[in-house]
């Protein structure tokens, strides 16, 4: 399946025709508490800003559109596109009604984000198992936006990476580059630099797992209608009707999918996406 950026009319893509935010379980391996599922939205070194569309029925992956144009992240020197496989942990939600005591900011209304640092360039829509290693607390325009750092459990180096310090040791420069990427990636779009709680220091595996658990709790409240969904589309096929009033039948889900635009031929990526932007560091 080719799910690179496409024309506006063909941006809606379905991963195995399933519901990404809801249908994939949070934990990949129940016996091991640090392994979670990750939905890959953006493969490493690509620029198209693809994300789980939380306001669309069954939450497909779509390319963000800004002022009628498909959105691509700019390359801030020396980066090219996203420098990890980037995606989200299903069944999590950063509640915009909850103020985090560490960041002093509310959630960004999205599933929790993951940067996967393994060697393999994943495919868009792929669901992989990742080992969680740490987390960065980004503040994006006044909202808490956690960035979990993790590695694909199938990566040959996964066994050697068990906590945040192992990344520093085995992949020197990667954590610093990650902070630099998130700090400046919106500057070419005329936005200010992003900020971080904890002075831009990564928190360890234990902290990351607690953060994931709390966002899973917020998701559970959302899906069972204990929290107002505020425009998010919670229709799902996997949470039993007793737990979620948004649960729908397979036939209803099929009708939603059949009612969407079919995938067309993708447009070529514009040359302007290759531009490098250079800035003095503040
Ligand atoms: Mg986010």
Automatic annotation (TrEMBL):
Obligatory cofactor(s): Mg(2+)
Assigned EC number: 3.6.1.1
Keyword Phosphoprotein appears in the UniProt entry: no
Protein name in UniProt: inorganic diphosphatase
Signal peptide: none
Subunit description: Homodimer.
GO cellular component terms attached to this protein's record: cytoplasm
GO molecular function: inorganic diphosphate phosphatase activity; magnesium ion binding
Gene that this polypeptide is encoded by: LOC106608436
Keywords carried by this UniProt record: Acetylation, Hydrolase, Magnesium, Metal-binding
Stated family: Belongs to the PPase family.
Pfam family for this entry, one: Pyrophosphatase
Superkingdom of the organism of origin: Eukaryota
GO biological process: phosphate-containing compound metabolic process
Protein's organism: Salmo salar
CDD domains: pyrophosphatase (cd00412)
């Amino acid at each position: 399946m080719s799910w690179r950026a496409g024309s506006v009319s063909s941006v809606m893509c379905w991963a195995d025709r399933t519901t990404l935010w809801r249908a994939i379980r949070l934990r990949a391996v129940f016996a091991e508490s640090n392994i979670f599922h990750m939905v890959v939205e953006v493969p490493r070194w690509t620029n198209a800003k693809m994300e789980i569309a939380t306001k669309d029925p069954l939450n497909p992956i779509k390319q963000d559109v800004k002022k009628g144009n498909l959105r691509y992240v700019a390359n801030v020197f020396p980066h090219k596109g996203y420098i990890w496989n980037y995606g989200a942990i299903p069944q999590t939600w950063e509640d915009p009604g909850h103020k985090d005591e560490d960041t002093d900011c509310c959630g960004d209304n999205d599933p929790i984000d993951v940067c996967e640092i393994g060697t393999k360039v994943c495919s868009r829509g792929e669901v992989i198992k990742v080992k969680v290693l740490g987390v960065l607390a980004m503040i994006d325009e006044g909202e808490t936006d956690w960035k979990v750092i993790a590695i694909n459990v199938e990566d040959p180096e996964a066994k050697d990476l068990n906590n945040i310090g192992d990344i520093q040791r085995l992949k020197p420069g990667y954590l610093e580059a990650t902070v630099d990427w998130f700090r400046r990636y919106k500057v070419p779009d005329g936005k200010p630099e992003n900020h971080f709680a904890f002075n831009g220091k990564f928190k360890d595996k234990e902290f990351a797992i607690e953060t994931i658990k709390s966002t899973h709790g917020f998701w559970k409240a959302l899906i069972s209608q204990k929290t107002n969904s505020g425009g998010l589309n919670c229709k799902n096929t996997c949470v039993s009707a007793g737990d979620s009033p948004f649960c729908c039948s397979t036939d209803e889900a099929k009708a939603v999918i059949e009612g969407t635009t079919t995938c067309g031929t993708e447009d070529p990526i514009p040359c302007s996406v290759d531009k490098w932007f250079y800035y003095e560091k503040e």
